[in-house]
C-alpha cells in the first residue's frame, strides 16, 4: 500500500511539474523579445500616416498581422497644450479581409473630435496634433503598455481648409513626355506648393499613385503662372498610360481634393539623328568614291535603330542599310556614282532613327521614323 501511494505521489508530482513547465514555456514564448510575432514586444503598428482636412484628420496605419489582436487604439496629443500628453480618442476593432481571410492591410480612423484649423502659437509657429497607435490582444493587454514613453512611432499634422483643386490640361504632344498645365489656377493666399502624384495604369488593377514631384512656392515672391506646369519625362516608350493627380497644398500641408485623371505618352517618332561626320573621298580615274558617315546616338530610351537611304537615278529614296541602336557609323569604299540628267554625280544619303513602337499607315504597320538627316557633298 505504501509503495502504491509513493508511486501515485511521484506521478502526481510529474503532472504538476509538466503543467508548470508548459505554462512557463507558453509565457516565455509569449514574451520572447526575439520573436517578431510576439504580441508583447512587437511594438506599435507601422505605416502610420495622417491626411489633414477641414477640422479633421484621417489616421491610417498598417495591420499588425499578428494572431490574437482584437482591436487598435488611437491616441492624440496637442503640442499647444501646457503639458502635452497622449489621450485616447478612438478605437477600431480587428478586421478580416473577406477575400483573403486575413487581417486587412490598412486601417483608417477619422478624427473630428475638437480639432481646430490653422493652429499656431504666439510666434506664428505651427502647432500640431500628434498621433500614436496601440493594439490590444485577446488577454486584454495593450502594446505599447505606456503610450507616452519615448521611441513609439508617431505622426503629426495640422488641420486646415484645403485649397481649391487645380484644373489640369494636357499640353501639346511631345515624344516620351506628358506636360501637365494648370495656368488658369488662382491660388489662395496661403498656398505653399503643388504636388504631382503618378502611377502607371495596368489593365485590371487600381493605379498606385506615388509622389512624382513637389513644386514648392517661394514664400517671398509668391506664386507665378510660370510655375503652374510640370513635364513628366519618366517614359521608356510610347503609348504608356499613367494616372495623375495634381494637388495644391497650403502652409499646413493640407492638400486639395483633386481628381485622378489619365494621360498617355503619344506615339511620336524620335528626334532626327545628329550627323557628326560626312566625308566624301573622290579618286582620279576611278568610277567609285568612298563615303564615311558618323552620327551621335539618339538620347531617347526607346530607340530601336537607324536606317540609311540613298537617292537613286529616278529620284527615289531606297533603303541602303538598317542598323541596330548601338551602331553610329557607316562606310563604303567603292560607292558608285549615279547619272542625273547629263551629269555623273555622287549620291545623296538620308539617315533616320526609329523607335520600338511602330505606327499604322494605310492599313500597314511601319516603323515610326524620325525626320531625315540629309548627307550631301
Number of helices: 1
Give the terminus-to-terminus CA distance. 124 Å
Provide the gyration radius in Å: 35 Å
Output mean pLDDT. Answer: 90
Taken together, the total number of domains comes to 4
Given the C-alpha coordinates, what overall shape results? elongated
Q: Which fold name fills CATH's third level, the topology of the largest domain? A: Immunoglobulin-like
Q: What is the class of the largest domain in the CATH system? A: Mainly Beta
Please count the beta strands (DSSP E, at least 2 residues each).
26
The string of secondary-structure elements, in order, is HEEEEEEEEEEEEEEEEEEEEEEEEEE
Largest beta-sheet characterization: 5 strands, antiparallel
Give me the secondary-structure category.
mainly beta
Question: In the CATH classification, which architecture of the largest domain applies?
Answer: Sandwich
**Percentage beta strand:** 35-45%
Helix content: under 10%
Poorly predicted regions are 1-5, 15-30, 32-36
Superfamily at the CATH H level of the largest domain? Immunoglobulins
Note down, in words, how this protein is organized.
- The structure is a single chain.
- By secondary structure, the chain is mainly beta.
- The chain has four domains: 1-30; 49-157, Immunoglobulin-like (Sandwich), CATH 2.60.40.10; 169-264, Immunoglobulins (Immunoglobulin-like, Sandwich), CATH 2.60.40; 275-375, Immunoglobulins (Immunoglobulin-like, Sandwich), CATH 2.60.40.
- The protein has one helix and 26 strands.
- Strand 1 and strand 2 (56-62) form a beta hairpin.
